[in-house]
Structures are given as C-alpha cells and as structure tokens.
Design goal:
The complex is a heterodimer of chains A (347) and B (339).
Chain A: E1 11-13, E2 16-17, H1 21-37, H2 43-56, E3 58-60, E4 63-67, H3 71-94, H4 98-123, E5 125-127, E6 130-134, H5 138-154, H6 160-173, E7 175-177, E8 180-181, E9 183-184, H7 188-220, H8 227-259, E10 261-263, E11 266-270, H9 274-290, H10 296-309, E12 311-315, H11 333-340
Helix pairs in contact in A: 1-2, 1-10, 2-3, 3-11, 4-5, 4-11, 5-6, 6-7, 7-8, 8-9, 9-10
Chain B: E1 2-9, E2 17-24, E3 27-32, E4 36-39, E5 45-46, E6 55-58, E7 64-67, H1 70-76, H2 82-91, H3 93-125, H4 132-145, E8 148-149, H5 154-169, E9 178-183, E10 191-194, E11 198-202, H6 203-208, H7 212-227, H8 230-248, H9 254-260, H10 262-290, H11 295-312, H12 326-338
Parallel strand pairs in B: 9-11
Antiparallel strand pairs in B: 1-2, 1-7, 2-3, 3-4, 5-6, 6-7, 8-9, 10-11
Classes of the chains: A alpha+beta (347), B alpha+beta (339).
Chain lengths: 347, 339
Amino acid sequence: MAEGESASPARTLRPEFTGSGAEYFRVWIVNLLFSLLTLGIYSAWAKVRKKKYLYGSTRLDGDTFDYFARPEAILKGRIVAVAAFVAYALAGELYPESRYAFWGLAALAAPWFIVRAFIFNARNSAWRGLRFHFTGTPGEAARVFLGRLAVTALTMGLAYPWYAARQKRFVLSNHAFGASRFGCDLSTRSFFGLYLRAGLMQIALLVPAGALAFFAIWALRSHQSLAMLAIALPAVAVYSAYAVVYGYVQARSANLMWNSAYGPGLRFSSTLEAKKLIAIYFGNIVAVACSAGLLIPWAVVRTLKYRLSCFAVLVEQEVVHEADPGFARVGATGQELGDFFNLDLGL
Amino acid sequence: MSVLRARYFDGHRSTAHDVSVLVGGGTLKVVGRDVDLRFDPRRVRVAPRVADAPRWIYLPGGGACAIADNDAVDALVREGRFAPFLHRIEARPAYAALALALVVATLWALIDRGVPAAAEQVALRIPPAAETVLGRETLAAFDRYWMQPSALPQSRQAMLRAEFETLAASAGGGPPHRLEFRSSPVIGPNAFALPAGIIVITDQLIALAHSDAEVLAVLAHELGHVAHRHVMRRLLQGSATALVIAGVTGDVTSTTSLAASAPVLLLQARYSRDFEREADRYGIDLLRKAGIPPRNFAVILERLEASAAAHRGGGVPGFLASHPPTEEREALAREAAQH
C-alpha cells in the first residue's frame, strides 16, 4: 500500500463505456436467437460474447478490459446447474421434505462454489494483459457466509449490517490485479448507520403502502370489475418500496466499500447517488416490464454507464503491476450454480 | 506488408507499449520503442470480433496486442466462417430486426407449444404413485387452512361415492382416484383435483346442485384433470417456463427480471384454461357414455357462475381468468347434448 500523500492523487482515472444500448441490443438479440434455436446450448457462447462486448467497451486509462472464459467450461457448469435445478424443483414438489435436505446440502457446498465463482470470473478477466485473481479460500468463505450468517440469525437479524460489511470486505480484499492485492478497511459501524437508515426508510414507505393496500381492498371489495386493481395496487406499492430501499442500499454500500478500498499505489472513489440509482432502477423495471424483456440490453447499458461514471481509480503512485506466477484453472460450475439459484454475489 | 497500430502488453507487467504490428513474409513483427519481437503468424491467436471493441491478438509466450482497426485485422486473418458471420449480423440493424422477429416466434412456439407438449410426454411417463406424498401434503394444507370435515351424513357420502364409481366404471374405472368430501365456507361451492388423483368436493357445491346428475357432471370434469395428469403437467410446465425465462433474462438484477416475467403469468393462465377445456371434453364424453345428459354440466356451471357473481358481483376478464369463459363451456356442453 502506498505511503503518505493520500490527499491529492497524481492521476484520477475514470472508466468510460464506449458502447451503446442499441449496439448491445443487436449483440444480445442475435445471441439470444441462437441460444433459443439450440435449446440453450449456445447460451454459454452467448454469455461469453455479451461479456466480451461489455468488457471490450469499457475503457480505463486508454485500454479496454478483456474477458476470455471458455464457453465449453460455462456450458458444463450450466448443465450441472440445470440438472440441480430440475432435481430440486421436481423432488421439492413430490417430496416437500426433500427441500430441507437440498438446502442443507446447498449451504454446505455454498462456500466452495462461491469461491470458485469468484476465481473463475477473476481469472478470466484482464486489463493490460494481466489477469485478475481471487485468493479467498472455501474455509474463509464458510466463516464469512455461513458462520456470520448464523450469528445474524441468532441476533434476529440485528447483526446483519456487520455480516454485510464483512462479506463485502472478504470479497474485495481477496481480489487482486495480477500479483497486486486489493485491500479494504470497510468499517462495520458505517454499515450499521446505513442499514438503520434503510430500515427506517422501509418502515416509512411500507406503512403508507400497506395503508394504501388496505384502503384499496376495502374500497374495491364490492366492485368486482376492479378486483384486479385491488390485488395489483398493493403489490405495486410494496414492490416500489422494496425497489427504493434496494437502490438506496446498493448505492450507499458500494460507495462505502470502494471508498475504503486500496491497492498498491492506488485508491478508489465511488460517488453513486442513491436518488439517481433508484430512478434508473425504476426506469429499468418499467421499460423491461412494458417491453416483455426486450429492453433488457438498454437497461444493462444504462445502469453500467451510470455506475462507471461514478467510479474512479485514484493513482497516488505509479506502480508497475506484475502478473501472478501461479495459475489454477477452475471450472464454471460454481458460478453457474450461483447464477441459477439467484445468489446475489455482485460487488 | 501491412502495418497496424496497436497496444502491446507482455503479460508479465502492466506496462502498455505503443507498437506497430507488421504482417508479411511469413512473420508477424511487433515493433515499438523498446519492443522488437517476431512470431510465427500460425501460432498467433486472434480473438473474434465483437462490435467495434479493440481486437485482441494473443501472442505465443503470454503477450497480447489490442488493435483498434478491426477492419484491417479482418482483412488479414481468416477466423473460420461462423465468427465473421456472427459479427456481420450483429452489426446491421436489419438483421437485428429479423433476429427479433425470429426470437419472438421461437419463444412463442417454445412456450405455447413446445413446453406443454414436452410436459405432457414427461408427465404421462411418471407413475402416478410418485405423487402420493405431494397429494397427502397438499390435502393436509387445504384441511389446515381452508376446509373442515364434511357435514354430509355418511349414508349420503356413500351414495354419491357409489354413483361416482358407476360413472367412472363406464370409462373402464377411469384413472386411480379418491373422492374426498369437505365443508368450506371460505372456498364456497367448488370441486378440484389435487395430486395423486384426489378429488375434493365441497358440501356447498352439493347443496347448490339440484340433482345428483349435476354433482356427477362436475366430478366427471375433475376426473378429466386426473386422467390428463394436469397437476403434474402444470408443475413441469411451470419449471420449464421458469427455465426459459431464466435463460432469456440471464443478465439483469433480480428486481428487473421479476418484471420481465410478468407476461408469463398471463401465459400460465392460458395453460390453465387449456387444461379446463381438456377436462370439459373428458367429462362430457364420460357423461355421455354413462347415459347422463351433458346438459347437467351446463346447468351446474351456470348456477356456479351465478353464485360466484352474487358473491363478488362480476367476473375477471376472460384473458386473465384461469377458466375458460362460462358461456363458452356451456355452449360446449349444450352442443354435446344435441348429439
């Protein structure tokens, strides 16, 4: 880590997205077509191609990122994930008790596949010819994701901010660019403040939403033709309240995390505005719902553009980063399982 | 000899070098201020072109070059047939529009035809015994929350049971089934099929019927659900549709992908209506075989509709309903009655 003069960085590098929603739509739709025509087999190639587009259109200090995962590895992972999903869905419907066994097994295996997912993604991402790395181990992941989660459950969720902060710190501080490790001194206290505000916000939004729901059901109970409205209105109100709090937590926690992160000779800055991010999420939800999903590429690009525009790398000292000499090849099963069962591991 | 401007990275250090890549005479040279390398072009790997993102060239030994001029790279290398084809169609809006039309058509065919057909084939191959536990659990859940034991005298239950078995016997006994009587003011006059061939009928429905023939008409319809394995098919269709949606919406956060799945709810309602029609046909066919006028089905449906309307005052629009419009079903039953 760089010593001293953290006051004014020598250079501020702002990433920039050079692609466009229209261009990404074309890549997305063509690859989606091939995925559908091949009954999903091509989806592994499609995933790599879409990532290549997004990485290749993201420029930092004049150079773009590169993504070079092998589609065959992703296909293998997807086959495992689909098999697990089908087994879970079917067994769960026929023998409801099997769900507990499944979740128990998944919890035990989770640290392993969480770590493999990060390794796979980091190893296959590069900038300036150097691959990223992830150095966390399943043991540490088990401590962070399972142990601390258990504590959170025991405290009736009161320890959740502590858990969230440690999780973020674990993920970030185990990443490396080549052999240059990142670090993070994210304070747990800041996360308690953040989640306290988020909790109050949720109550403040859910009380009127609940009141509205109650009123709607009461007012419309005798108007059968408006019955759909009585169901839809409260759902929309609750969903909106959730989206607002989600956007707020996303923006603030990303800021807290990146602003306390560092690497050799560098620091980071994240200045996401909760209001803007929430507005973007709402726009996305409305656009995606109204277009039956066709505006997904537009939503992806728009969100990415905003997030990148608020991010900066502060170079305090010019350091030549070196490659990590070790090389471990991991499969994509962990990542695909995580994707499939909707584990939100994102930074 | 062609000359391309590029950024060179040696793969060991993060230093960027501005270089020229020279191709010709059986060699590929990378030349810059402090770089002077030569490679066998056959051992150099060129990444496929994606839009206009800088093109990566991977050199033997771990180095790489990023070249901004994609067209120049295309002119130099042949990278098989599929990769250039892919880029060509991704680059033109007209092809994207065509792909869009094909995606919509394929998705429609897949969800509207492919998924139900596949689910039917699979469901018919799963032994009904596989549903036993699910049937027990579901009935227990209904009993816990919404239903009480039937208030009908045992003798009346036994009579209806016997009549139902006689009816089923005219279809060779029908699929394995079990009739359950329950009382439920919450559910009201209703009958429904649960997994494992369990058919539940409420006291409220029996009270609403003017004759046993009407009760049997409803039970014949429910037996149709059992015979066509609708519970298992709905389950399989739900999972398969979820898989398709997960595939399409793969790259958005969960909040947004939930929004993308809204149209699927409408589709699910359609599946459900198709099942009702199938059960209607089975029921009417069964009634006719047993010599009970199918008109009874139309009559009880009409009365059910009237009772539901009195309860809530109206009806959900047809495209949202999980049942086909009652008029349509009555017409079906009346038409059947004339043959």
